[in-house]
């Protein structure tokens, strides 16, 4: 079984596009995490999902209180706004359209969520993107309405062969597919120590870990019984292998 | 924040409440503050469970209410949990797991934006919508296992013996139509509905 290596370098300042990972950023309609500018700098394509454009317009200037708001909005202009367009304000749409942002109106398609549309766009259509090692960062993916959050988590399961990271101010989540051994390299300046492994979609008959305060050894996990929450990372590397897809979650530090 | 909570509950209920605090993740200065406030409130009991690191705070609280809370008619008990969602996802998942662990007790997880509760597979469910305070956005979430068959009435996108599972169909961004929803499923489901802002 192949090893899949994970590292939250997208949370570290700096924009080394020399990294082998190609990042894309999708902004959803929740409060922008305070580290959104760091994600933005790592990303080679930036997509707003419908009302995510309102968030960018309203809240990015708040992260740069000493800068002129219009300047900030010009600096942080999305490449594309996509979705069913029922949340974006007209003034926001006009502002970004005038700056050259492409708008793709998918209001005819009521069967898929905005995030699903954006992930499909990045995977299939985003031009000039090296997708051999793609990682899609999703800001504002958690909190708010639980059905939205569940729908966003479901996108991780639907697109299980693409690295997708759901982010909020407090934590991040991504899928650990059962097809791989996983090595998670902890960036302790920005994440941890609180973490968990969550068998959302089905019972996990057997999971084995190293590097956690409460490691699992061929342990069964399922809702109604053991789910690994309020765990703690010890040191710099976690390993996980499971008979089922698991969600990995780790807290993001406040400073 | 704790003080404001104390005051608002006292005002609302008009009688002394039993508060139970678990200092599992409580720093020492917060704990000291809580103890000082608690000692001023007539009838308040403080239970320190900080020695028990194996169960979550919510699980301890639910077990307390179920087993120990005196003078409580538990024949039709419903436990409301404020601040149960948002924040760290592992906490949220742990709180959801409490719904599954205590599947025979009505437990409602609440946030500013929505509420969640379990619909056990053992029953047909009728959900009466309080449309002045909740809806219309809703969902049915098969957490923990595939739901082979779910049938609903009263939703914009009803299900008819429909399979739901993560990786495929999960009923999110659904809408309530009218005043009564019915749900029956081969698996336990989470029901979630938005809470109105006004």
Automatic annotation (TrEMBL), chain A:
Q: Its annotated pathway?
A: Cofactor biosynthesis; thiamine diphosphate biosynthesis; thiamine diphosphate from thiamine: step 1/1
Q: Where in the cell is it found?
A: Cytoplasm, Cytosol
Output the CDD domains linked to this UniProt entry. Answer: TPK
GO biological process: what's one of them? thiamine metabolic process
Q: What is its main location?
A: cytoplasm
Q: Name one GO molecular function term.
A: ATP binding
Q: Which terms in the GO cellular component ontology are assigned?
A: cytosol
- Write out the entry's keywords from A to Z: ATP-binding, Cytoplasm, Kinase, Nucleotide-binding, Transferase
Where would I find the Thiamin pyrophosphokinase thiamin-binding domain in this sequence? Answer: 180-247
**Pfam hit, one:** TPK_B1_binding
- Top enzyme class, one word, equals transferase
Reaction catalysed by this chain?
A: thiamine + ATP = thiamine diphosphate + AMP + H(+)
EC id: 2.7.6.2
Q: Do you know which SMART domains this protein is assigned to? A: TPK_B1_binding
Sequence similarity? Belongs to the thiamine pyrophosphokinase family.
The UniProt function text for this chain reads: Catalyzes the phosphorylation of thiamine to thiamine pyrophosphate (TPP). TPP is an active cofactor for enzymes involved in glycolysis and energy production. Plant leaves require high levels of TPP for photosynthesis and carbohydrate metabolism.
State the name under which the record lists this protein: Thiamine pyrophosphokinase
Q: Taxonomy-wise, where does this protein's organism fall, top ranks first? A: Eukaryota, Viridiplantae, Streptophyta, Embryophyta, Tracheophyta
Automatic annotation (TrEMBL), chain B:
Species this protein is from:
Salix viminalis (Common osier)
Q: Which SMART domains match?
A: TPK_B1_binding (SM00983)
Its biological purpose is as follows: Catalyzes the phosphorylation of thiamine to thiamine pyrophosphate (TPP). TPP is an active cofactor for enzymes involved in glycolysis and energy production. Plant leaves require high levels of TPP for photosynthesis and carbohydrate metabolism.
Question: Which residues belong to the signal peptide in this entry?
Answer: none
* Stretches assigned to the Thiamin pyrophosphokinase thiamin-binding domain: 123-190
What keywords is this UniProt entry annotated with?
A: ATP-binding, Kinase, Nucleotide-binding, Transferase
Q: NCBIfam families, from UniProt?
A: thi_PPkinase
Write down what this protein is called: thiamine diphosphokinase
GO CC terms: cytosol
């Amino acid at each position: 079984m192949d090893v899949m290596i994970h590292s939250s370098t997208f949370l570290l300042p700096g924009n080394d596009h020399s990294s082998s990972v190609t990042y894309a950023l999708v902004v959803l309609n929740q409060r922008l995490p305070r580290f959104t500018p760091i994600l933005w700098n790592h990303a080679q394509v930036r997509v707003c999902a419908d009302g995510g454009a309102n968030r960018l317009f309203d809240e990015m200037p708040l992260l740069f209180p000493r800068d002129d708001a219009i300047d900030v909005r010009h600096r942080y202009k999305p490449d594309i706004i996509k979705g069913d367009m029922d949340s974006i304000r007209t003034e926001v749409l006009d502002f970004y359209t005038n700056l050259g942002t492409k708008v793709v109106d998918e209001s005819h398609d009521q069967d898929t969520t905005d995030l699903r549309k954006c992930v499909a766009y990045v995977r299939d259509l985003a031009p000039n993107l090296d997708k051999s090692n793609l990682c899609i960062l999703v800001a504002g993916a958690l909190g708010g309405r639980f059905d939205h959050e569940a729908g966003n988590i479901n996108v991780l399961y639907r697109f299980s062969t693409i690295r997708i990271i759901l982010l909020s101010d407090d934590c991040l989540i991504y899928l650990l597919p059962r097809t791989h051994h996983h090595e998670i390299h902890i960036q302790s300046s920005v994440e941890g120590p609180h973490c968990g492994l969550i068998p959302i979609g089905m019972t996990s008959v057997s999971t084995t870990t190293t590097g956690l305060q409460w490691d699992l050894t061929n342990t069964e996990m399922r809702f109604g019984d053991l789910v690994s929450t309020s765990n703690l990372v010890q040191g710099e590397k976690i390993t996980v292998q499971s008979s089922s897809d698991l969600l990995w979650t780790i807290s993001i530090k406040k400073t | 924040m704790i003080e404001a909570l104390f005051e608002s509950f006292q005002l609302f209920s008009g009688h002394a409440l039993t508060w139970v605090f678990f200092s599992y993740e409580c720093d020492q200065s917060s704990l000291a503050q809580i103890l000082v406030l608690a000692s001023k409130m007539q009838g308040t009991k403080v239970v320190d469970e900080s020695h028990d690191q194996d169960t979550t705070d919510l699980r301890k609280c639910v077990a307390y209410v179920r087993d120990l809370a005196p003078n409580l008619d538990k024949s039709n008990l419903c436990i409301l949990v404020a601040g149960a969602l948002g924040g760290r996802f592992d906490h949220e998942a742990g709180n959801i797991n409490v719904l599954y662990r205590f599947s025979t007790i009505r437990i409602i997880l609440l946030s500013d934006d929505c509420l969640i509760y379990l619909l056990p597979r053992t029953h047909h469910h009728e959900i009466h919508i309080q449309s002045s305070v909740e809806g219309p956005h809703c969902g049915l979430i098969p957490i923990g296992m595939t739901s082979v068959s779910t049938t609903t009435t009263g939703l914009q996108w009803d299900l008819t013996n429909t399979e739901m599972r993560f990786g495929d169909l999960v009923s999110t961004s659904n809408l309530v139509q009218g005043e009564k929803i019915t749900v029956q499923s081969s698996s336990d489901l989470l029901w979630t509905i938005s809470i109105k802002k006004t």
